[in-house]
Design brief:
The structure holds 2 protein chains of 2 kinds. Chain A has a single domain, classed as 2-Layer Sandwich (Translation Initiation Factor IF3). Chain A has 3 helices and 4 strands, in the order H-E-E-H-H-E-E. Chain A is an alpha+beta fold. Chain A is 47% helix and 22% strand. The longest helix of chain A has 38 residues. By secondary structure, chain B is of the alpha+beta class. Chain B has a 4-stranded mixed beta sheet. The chains are: A alpha+beta, B alpha+beta. At the A-B interface, helix 1, strand 2, helix 2, strand 3 and strand 4 of A face strand 1, helix 1, strand 3, helix 2 and strand 4 of B. Strand 2 of chain A pairs antiparallel with strand 3 of chain B, so a sheet runs across the interface.
């Protein structure tokens, strides 16, 4: 009887722990992302190769990078497992990927700003599966790597 | 040494193209037996240790690419691309490549 209780209690305990920690972490992370994106909103971010507004031979340009490895929590993985039975959108993993992308891009923009650039072009996002999700015993851990070329925008000359 | 991931560098023109340069590192990628990662997988959040590990691996690959370019006497690398390939069940190769060129201001 105790072993059955234990077998049920441990996953339940993990789910409750994950629920609290997941909510706390998500809330803090999203707040931090909003704040930093606001601070970095002056930087023009594009995935164009033609450097809109650029061409300064003195400051030139350089590659900037940002990356993050984020894990999903037990509760979301559990809910995704249930979703796998019925099919449809897995919103919890969508949120994980969105947060990872935003974080990688914010880090890239921070690096550009620190080096004194005010525009980034040719943004590329690379995805990597760290937790072995493609296997049966995989964990939901993803890596997003963002890179781009930072440059300076020349000020508009009045005609 | 200027490094960019576009085909041109703003404000510079390419005078000579040297060729492809590359750098790579092989790292253990999958976290199957990592206890800390297992814990993070329960509570969620960023795995700072792995982020730093992968940042360091990429930095090392880029350094190897830079030393190849220096040997060719180039002063810039353009069109840099990254690639991650799984080697065995537990390891991945982080590969970076680009074109080494000689540039001068326009």
């Amino acid at each position: 009887m105790y072993s059955a209780l234990f077998q049920l209690g441990v996953p339940l305990g993990l789910i409750i722990l994950a629920w609290f920690s997941g909510r706390w972490y998500d809330h803090n992370h999203l707040k931090s992302l909003d704040r930093r994106e606001q601070e970095l909103s002056g930087i023009l971010l594009t995935d164009l190769k033609c450097f809109p507004g650029g061409g300064d031979p003195v400051k030139s340009g350089t590659m900037v990078m940002g990356q993050v490895v984020i894990a999903n929590d037990y509760l979301k993985a559990f809910l995704a497992g249930i979703r796998k039975i019925f099919g449809g959108e897995v919103k919890s993993y969508e949120l994980l990927m969105a947060r990872a992308r935003r974080e990688a891009i914010v880090r890239l923009l921070t690096q550009a700003q620190e080096q004194g650039f005010d525009a980034v072009g040719n943004l590329r996002l690379y995805f990597s599966d760290i937790g072995g999700m493609s296997g049966k015993k995989g964990m939901a851990i993803v890596e997003i790597f963002a890179c781009g070329t930072a440059y300076c925008r020349t000020p508009e000359t009045p005609s | 040494m200027i490094v960019v991931n576009t085909e041109t560098i703003p404000g510079m023109k390419i005078t000579e193209t040297k060729g492809i340069v590359q750098g790579n590192t092989i790292r253990a990628k999958h976290v199957g037996r990592d206890i800390a990662a297992g814990f993070k997988n329960i509570v969620g959040g960023e795995l700072k240790g792995y982020t730093e590990l992968l940042t360091e691996a990429r930095r090392q690959s880029i350094e190897r690419m830079l030393s190849q370019a220096e040997q060719l006497r180039a002063n810039a690398i353009v069109n840099v691309r990254f690639s991650t390939s799984a080697i065995t069940a537990g390891a991945a190769e982080l590969y970076v490549y680009g074109t080494a060129v000689v540039v001068e201001p326009e």
